[in-house]
């Protein structure tokens, strides 16, 4: 599986849907934290669950956070929650969703706070 990562800042990148089997490669690439912005089962039954990704991430030594948000709207509370996560986790961070788009929008909004 090829991993598509878009670097937004030196410490923050986004990616489309990640799977449990990519977590060790992310850790080897130097990432410290993974943030999942995708609700479970949004993509149907074949999408890995947050719990499956969390287990693999933690087994690889990564910090894992799940902040599921909708693609077309992130509430002020969700934006503030993203800001709080960014303030507490080690960098560099890789956030993901279906395409990387909502993680990008959420990061942009959170860094404006």
From TrEMBL:
Protein species of origin: Roseateles aquatilis
Annotated coiled-coil segments of the chain: none
Domain of life: Bacteria
Lineage: Bacteria, Pseudomonadati, Pseudomonadota, Betaproteobacteria, Burkholderiales
Domain Beta-lactamase hydrolase-like protein phosphatase-like: 7-109
One MF annotation (Gene Ontology) recorded for this entry: hydrolase activity
Gene3D superfamilies per UniProt: Protein tyrosine phosphatase superfamily (3.90.190.10)
One Pfam family named in its UniProt record: BLH_phosphatase
Protein name per the record: TIGR01244 family protein
């Amino acid at each position: 599986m090829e991993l598509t990562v878009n670097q937004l800042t030196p410490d923050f990148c986004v990616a489309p849907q990640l799977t449990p089997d990519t977590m060790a490669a992310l850790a080897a690439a130097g990432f410290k934290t993974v943030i999942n912005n995708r609700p479970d089962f949004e993509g149907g039954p074949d999408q890995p669950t947050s719990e499956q990704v969390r287990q693999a991430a933690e087994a690889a030594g990564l910090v894992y956070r799940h902040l599921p948000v909708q693609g077309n709207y992130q509430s002020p509370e969700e934006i503030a929650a993203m800001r709080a996560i960014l303030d507490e986790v080690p960098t560099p961070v890789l956030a993901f969703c279906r395409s990387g788009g909502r993680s990008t929008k959420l990061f942009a909004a959170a860094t404006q706070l």
